[in-house]
């Protein structure tokens, strides 16, 4: 995964170009390994509609995957400085783990972002998140979901469920403690997904998930 730190966040284009001439603001590229990809959720503006019901915001999976397209800049702050990072994938492994960042910790409590992520469970193509030269080395860039971990409820009192694909039959099952039940693929996308495992589709594989 490529990482591009920059030391002049959100400056006007001309001023930014001038600052980049200084050594302290030179762009640097660092390649690092990863166990999973953290997907940042937008801030959840909870408000009530005309029926006084809470509105739960939604975001497409590809919107939060844009963090890894090599051009989207994310600002980071430390005690001493502010800087920008851009991320781009340099390799696509057989399995990918997404961690949707739902929890934010501060000195007093943990907050949970309830935003629903809209995602297909098959045919997620990540080719566009690779640079052109890296794309040539990847014959297969499409992934199918095989497991989905859900967090329900408040951050300190919630519970977990897991959705698992049975590869032999193409059916999905929901597991919670010792209880196992069938679940329709369409219902998986309505959950507060927290951790997902995706499997790269090889050329000779067929889609058995039926969704």
Structure explained in plain terms:
The protein has 211 residues and is mainly beta. It has a domain of 114 residues: Cysteine proteinases (Cathepsin B, Chain A, Alpha-Beta Complex), CATH 3.90.70. Helices cover 9% and strands 36% of the residues. The protein has four helices and 17 strands. Strands 3, 8, 12, 13, 14, 15, 16 and 17 form an eight-stranded mixed sheet that branches. The longest helix is centred in the first third of the chain and has 7 residues. It starts with a strand and ends in an 11-residue tail after the last strand. The N terminus is likely disordered.
Helix-strand layout with pairing:
Elements: E1 2-3, H1 13-19, E2 30-31, E3 37-40, E4 58-60, H2 61-65, E5 74-77, E6 82-85, E7 87-88, E8 95-101, E9 103-105, E10 110-112, E11 116-118, E12 124-125, H3 132-135, E13 142-152, E14 159-166, E15 171-176, E16 179-183, H4 185-188, E17 193-200
Parallel strand pairs: 3-8, 4-11
Antiparallel strand pairs: 1-2, 1-7, 5-6, 8-17, 9-10, 12-13, 13-14, 13-17, 14-15, 15-16
Catalytic activity: Thiol-dependent hydrolysis of ester, thioester, amide, peptide and isopeptide bonds formed by the C-terminal Gly of ubiquitin (a 76-residue protein attached to proteins as an intracellular targeting signal)
EC number: 3.4.19.12
Enzyme class: hydrolase
In short:
The protein has 211 residues and is mainly β.
Distance between the termini: 30 Å
CATH superfamily of the domain at 34-42 and 55-144 and 186-200: Cysteine proteinases
**Mean pLDDT across all residues, rounded?**
83
Rg, please?
A: 20 Å
Structural class: mainly beta
Indicate the percent of residues in helices. Answer: under 10%
User: Care to count the β-strands?
Assistant: 17
State the CATH topology of the domain at 34-42 and 55-144 and 186-200. Cathepsin B, Chain A
The largest β sheet comes out as: 8 strands, mixed
The helix tally amounts to 4
How would you spell out the order of helices and strands?
A: EHEEEHEEEEEEEEHEEEEHE
User: Would you identify the CATH architecture of the domain at 34-42 and 55-144 and 186-200?
Assistant: Alpha-Beta Complex
> Which consecutive residue ranges, at least 5 long each, have pLDDT under 50?
2-10
């Amino acid at each position: 995964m490529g990482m591009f730190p920059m030391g002049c966040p959100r400056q006007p284009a001309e001023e930014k170009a001038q600052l980049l001439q200084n050594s302290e603001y030179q762009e640097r590229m660092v390649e690092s390994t990863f166990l999973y990809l953290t997907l940042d959720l937008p801030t959840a503006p909870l408000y009530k509609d005309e029926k006084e019901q809470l509105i739960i915001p939604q975001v497409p999976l590809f919107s939060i995957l844009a963090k890894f397209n090599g051009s989207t800049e994310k600002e980071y702050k430390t005690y001493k400085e502010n800087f920008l990072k851009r991320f781009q994938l340099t390799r696509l492994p057989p399995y990918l783990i997404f961690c949707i960042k739902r929890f934010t910790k501060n000195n007093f409590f943990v907050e949970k972002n309830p935003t629903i992520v809209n995602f297909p469970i098959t045919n997620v193509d990540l080719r566009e998140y690779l640079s052109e030269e890296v794309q040539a080395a990847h014959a297969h860039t499409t992934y199918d979901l095989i497991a989905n971990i859900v967090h329900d409820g408040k951050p300190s009192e919630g519970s977990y469920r897991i959705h698992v694909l049975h590869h032999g039959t193409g059916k999905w099952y929901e597991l919670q403690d010792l209880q196992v039940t069938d679940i329709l693929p369409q219902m998986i996308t309505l959950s507060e997904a927290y951790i997902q495992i995706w499997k790269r589709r090889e050329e000779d594989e067929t889609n058995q998930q039926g969704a």
